[in-house]
């Protein structure tokens, strides 16, 4: 099946700006799904609100475009009520970790089987360039005209601490790596988190002297290094890429099925 | 399930009703005075293969039941005032995306954290207009456990019929008092399942194209049809659209599907209304005091009757106008500052004859409280 067969062409052209990294994330995601040979009708894509969230309309899966920050909560209802479905939950950085931060840590704690993709462009794009919880200190944004003083989250550390059983990071520059990681994340039984650094030349790059899309992509090449690599050991200020957690832990829906099975011998009281 | 007699709390009667109606998914977050609904379903649901999940907050609970409803399950959540406020955005989503679901609100005093363990009926307007934008909503209520059971079954049936959230507005006294409940035998009350599409695999399915009767056949997530669900205004494929015709058409559809069926949704109970000179309009636990007073005064020859509302939204305007016609006075008995009273005034022919008997201090309104107001209206002093 070609990648095009996974798209809803009726819904194109997409609404992302020229140079936006989100199209690359979509491409990587579809190539991962294609690589795994999944049936389109077995996949539910749930998204929140913002630029990133429109991704669910573009794919020919069951798609649920929800409210801001709550994609994981909707996805939990879908997955728990019908565990045979594959849940893909792409979210923007604000979606996943500002308004949706609580749902993020609790989905990780439950270890419910779904794949959360944090499309991290460090800015609120759709509302016009306000800073996000992943912007970090010293960033210019419409709501930080004198530069941000807000610290950012490290998504990988946070997901790990909250209990996600698969945690990884890649960028829109490292497309083949991202496809490979996404395949492993989707295949993983449990809550998997993949952070993908995705450039926003319109609102982040322009204000923060990041240059155009190609400059920003090059910066992902220059400022990141594979986890465990010599480059990272020599220069710890680089952002680590790769798989950080990949563990086998009891999955939520399976554990609940265990309760149902245990009770099935008894009668309803 | 066999017919059996139980001695239960109102919250438990609600659980019995939900199980009778075929609930198979519940997501919730504990909040007084609704918590027993969650506790009992946590125990009962897995026994019949259903799912119970305690989410991290009220918002997540509302979102989770919407997700589960889309896979074809009968779903419910339960909460109280502050939790109900948190659910409002997702409740609006369920209205917009037309997702069948039942939301129980066992009311407590408010605003804010208010009076968690005491009785109030302050969420009548929140049930109607809590979320933003224009939409219709169905809200049912009950004053006794047999009705709690019946209205809960009705709530599932109406949600499935009209593809809409249905709110069950109970109050603390009804939720926590214990009385007899007769659980009917299987089949005694007809159950409704959502209309599912007959469109086959590979044929273009339009999830948001209403049939002539206004109903929209659904397709379960995970089934043959892959479609888009969104809280944005959307066309018949479920794709976002801001085309004025699409926006206008969808909003009219959301309102009309309920407002055009008021006769089928409206529910009430009449007590001693024959020739009543004074009509008490009430609902929930305050209706019990109204009924007590009416019975008592009838025995003494006073013509007092009660119109007990079992549905509040859509507002049963025509029914109230008709039942109150010719009455010397209409007294709305409720435990708030007149949330239903204002609508009764708008409904009746002579609004100046409508009075409010209320109590807002966290205690039940008593027959004596109502009688005192009645004496003033009758010109018999305090």
TrEMBL record, chain A:
Its EC number is 1.2.7.3. Pfam families: TPP_enzyme_C. The keyword Membrane does not apply. InterPro entries: 2-oxoacid:Fd_oxidoreductase, THDP-binding, TPP_enzyme_TPP-bd. Keywords: Oxidoreductase. It is an enzyme of class 1 (oxidoreductase). GO terms for molecular function: 2-oxoglutarate synthase activity; thiamine pyrophosphate binding. Residues 49-196 form the Thiamine pyrophosphate enzyme TPP-binding domain. CDD domains: TPP_OGFOR (cd03375). GO terms for biological process: cellular respiration; small molecule metabolic process. This is PorB1. It comes from Desulforapulum autotrophicum (strain ATCC 43914 / DSM 3382 / VKM B-1955 / HRM2). The gene is porB1.
Automatic annotation (TrEMBL), chain B:
Residues 16-196 form the Pyruvate flavodoxin/ferredoxin oxidoreductase pyrimidine binding domain. Pfam families: PFOR_II, POR_N. Residues 276-370 form the Pyruvate:ferredoxin oxidoreductase core domain. GO terms for molecular function: 2-oxoglutarate synthase activity. Its EC number is 1.2.7.3. InterPro entries: 2-oxoacid_oxidoreductase (IPR052368), PFOR_II (IPR033412), Pyrv_Fd/Flavodoxin_OxRdtase_N (IPR002880), THDP-binding (IPR029061), Transketo_C/PFOR_II (IPR009014). Keywords: Oxidoreductase. NCBIfam families: PRK08659.1 (NF006412). This is PorC1. It comes from Desulforapulum autotrophicum (strain ATCC 43914 / DSM 3382 / VKM B-1955 / HRM2). The lineage of its organism: Bacteria, Pseudomonadati, Thermodesulfobacteriota, Desulfobacteria, Desulfobacterales. The gene is porC1.
